[in-house]
């Protein structure tokens, strides 16, 4: 399964050229995981692989993870794929993971929420990212979630670009677990 997802990411999500990243840095490659995360096979593979990683490496008996999500839009399909996979696994010792999304800023209408979906204050959450570059998106989500009463279990990404994001996340006292490092995809 991991090899199939790696192949799909390379085919669909990695582009060569001259790109300006969200951080403002220039790069000779771009990783657009949405081309894989919104693909049916990609979502299916991501859900199963990342759910297994969460279950095997991150869930502790007395420290369950209740919900997963991150800053919209990159984290949204990843979190939902994992939540669906966790429901399908039907592990009695761990209830399915709920999914949520974090807006870049609170809505000005309706309930005015910044966090939408299946999140409750007091939840122990795992922040999800599609690609980590500087770590700023993950840390923005962490700040919003802490303000809303979440306990942060860590950060999990589909791809780590190895450009300082891991160090920034670790400097904030959190761990980063990535399914792939960029060297595996280039």
Strand order, sheet with most strands: 5-4-3-6-7-8
Shape annotation: globular
CATH class: Alpha Beta
Q: What is the chain-wise order of helices and strands?
A: HEEHHEHEEEHEHE
Query: How many structural domains?
Result: 1
**Rg, Cα atoms, Å:** 16 Å
In total, the number of strands is 8
Structural class: alpha/beta
Strand proportion: 25-35%
| Terminal residue distance | 19 Å
Can you give the helix content as a percent range?
A: 25-40%
According to CATH, what is the topology? Rossmann fold
CATH hierarchy: architecture:
3-Layer(aba) Sandwich
Largest sheet: 6 strands, mixed
* Mean pLDDT figure: 92
Please provide a written account of the structure.
This protein is α/β, with parallel strands linked by helices and 186 residues long. The chain has one domain: Rossmann fold (3-Layer(aba) Sandwich), CATH 3.40.50. Helices cover 37% and strands 27% of the residues. It has six helices and eight strands. The strands form two sheets. Strands 5-4-3-6-7-8 form a six-stranded mixed beta sheet, sandwiched between helices. It has a two-stranded antiparallel sheet with strand order 1-2. Helix 5 links the parallel strand 6 and strand 7. The radius of gyration is 16 Å and the shape is globular. The two termini are 19 Å apart. The mean pLDDT is 92.
């Amino acid at each position: 399964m991991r090899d199939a997802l790696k192949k799909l990411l390379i085919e669909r999500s990695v582009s060569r050229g001259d790109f300006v990243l969200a951080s403002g840095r220039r790069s000779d490659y771009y990783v657009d995981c949405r081309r894989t995360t919104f693909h049916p096979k990609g979502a299916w593979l991501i859900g199963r692989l990342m759910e297994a990683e969460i279950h095997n490496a991150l869930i502790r008996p007395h420290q369950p993870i209740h919900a997963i999500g991150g800053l919209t839009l990159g984290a949204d399909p990843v979190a939902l794929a994992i939540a669906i996979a966790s429901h399908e696994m039907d592990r009695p010792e761990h209830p399915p993971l709920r999914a949520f999304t974090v807006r870049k800023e609170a809505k000005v209408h309706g309930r005015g929420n910044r966090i939408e979906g299946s999140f409750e204050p007091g939840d122990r959450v795992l922040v999800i990212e599609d690609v980590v570059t500087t770590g700023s998106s993950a840390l923005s989500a962490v700040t919003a979630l802490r303000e809303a009463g979440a306990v942060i279990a860590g950060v999990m990404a589909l791809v780590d670009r190895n450009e300082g994001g891991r160090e920034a996340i670790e400097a904030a006292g959190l761990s980063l677990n990535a399914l792939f490092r960029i060297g595996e995809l280039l």
